[in-house]
Design goal:
The chain is mainly beta. The chain is built from 1 helix and 7 strands; from the N terminus they run βββββαββ. The radius of gyration is 13 Å and the shape is globular. 20% of the residues are buried.
Length: 104
């Protein structure tokens, strides 16, 4: 059953990220979260760049992990699941936004 996360990327609109066997989702820095998959067509790592977060704030990583888990629980007819970052604030107090997806 193929599932996708719909990720709103600043100045690019919604991007789809296929949810595959997840190895790890980790906060790499205050401005990025890395997702490693067991296998991915364009590589097996996706770096999700976002607005700067406060030190030790893992809210974006948690939101991504939760969205991936929820997508797998949804009906097989629901193949696109939105990444919801509402209520997550960047270090400057504004609503956090994803700024780029990089595949490696």
């Amino acid at each position: 059953m193929v599932k996708y996360l719909s990720i709103e990327v600043r100045n690019q609109g919604k991007q789809l990220l296929q949810v595959l066997p997840l190895i790890m989702c980790e906060t790499v820095s205050t401005i990025s979260t890395k997702i490693e998959f067991a296998s991915y067509a364009s590589g097996d790592t996706v770096v999700v760049a976002h607005d700067a977060m406060a030190t030790n704030d893992n809210s974006v990583r948690i939101a991504i992990s939760n969205a991936m888990a929820e997508s797998m629980k949804s009906s097989y007819t629901d193949v696109v699941f939105p990444l919801d970052l509402k209520g997550i604030k960047a270090a400057d107090g504004t609503q956090v936004e994803i700024t780029e997806l990089t595949f490696a």
